[in-house]
Each structure stands twice: as C-alpha cells, then as structure tokens.
Design a protein that fits this description.
CATH class: Alpha Beta
Number of strands: 4
Shape: globular
Order of helices and strands: HHEEEHHE
Largest sheet: 2 strands, antiparallel
CATH topology: Rossmann fold
CATH architecture: 3-Layer(aba) Sandwich
Distance between the termini: 27 Å
Oligomer: single chain
Radius of gyration: 17 Å
Number of helices: 4
Mean pLDDT: 88
Structural class: mainly alpha
Helix content: 40-55%
Strand content: 5-15%
Length: 142
C-alpha cells in the first residue's frame, strides 16, 4: 500500500466512531469496542465490548487524530511535535523485530512518512484548536 493509500484507506473511521467514540460519548451506551480489527493478527474484535464506567475518560493515541472525521468527538487535544528523523528512528527501532530492519525502514519511509506529509498538508493539525502542544524536537534520544 502506498503512502496515499494508507492515509486515505487504512483507517476505519466508521468503526472508530460507531463502536468507540459515540458509545462512550455523553449520550452513548458506554458499551465500547476497543479494537475493531487487529491489523497484525487479522482478528475481528467488533463483537468484543467492554462497559465503560459513567465517569470514564477516554485517552486515544491515534495517528491522524486531527482529521475532520473526528473533530466533534474530542474534548481535549494534544499535539506532539516530533522531528521526522526522531520519528523514523523510533518507528524503525519498534518495528525491526517484526519486519526486519530494511523492511521497517522502507515501510516507514515510503508509506507512513508519505502519509504523514499528506496529513500535515491537508489537515494542518497545528492550525486546529490544540489544548496543549509538546515540542519534542530538542530531544536527542529516542
């Protein structure tokens, strides 16, 4: 899958909204699906629900979280500003065991980085309302 294909087609926004964000919202049932489909195992978890407490706080760590499809579901937003070099190094280190070093580097450079560039260009997440931003660009370690 290309970087553009990944950005436009890899995420199931409908499932995220219908199975997680709406049910945990103020008028939702509280019965949420935490993982609709596991891309690593191919297992479909859409029928596995958990009941969130009424006072639950949902913390979502999500690539492309500032896309317009999600805007109305966030109460609070955090933008982590990470340099491309640090992001690539962290991702390759994380995925090397599963993919092998060369494939991890290729995937992150050709697919994920390209998708991120499209996202930043089209959505411009730092131009959205951000409650807090963290600049990690000065970090030397990963």
């Amino acid at each position: 899958m290309s970087g553009e294909g990944y950005y436009r087609n890899a995420y199931d926004f409908t499932s995220a909204v219908e199975l997680l964000l709406k049910p945990i919202g103020p008028r939702g049932s509280g019965n949420v699906v935490l993982c609709a489909h596991d891309p690593l195992t191919g297992v479909d978890h859409r029928k596995t629900t958990v009941k969130a407490p009424k006072d639950a706080a949902l913390v979502v760590d999500l690539v492309f979280a500032f896309r317009p499809e999600y805007d109305r579901y966030w109460d609070f937003r955090i933008w982590l500003d990470v340099s491309t070099d640090v992001s690539l190094a962290r991702a390759v280190e994380r995925d090397t065991e599963r993919e092998g070093a060369d494939e991890a580097l290729r995937l992150h450079h050709n697919r994920y980085h390209t998708a991120e560039l499209i996202y930043v260009t089209e959505v411009n997440p730092t131009n959205n309302p951000v409650d807090t931003a963290t600049d990690t660009r000065t970090e030397e370690s990963h």
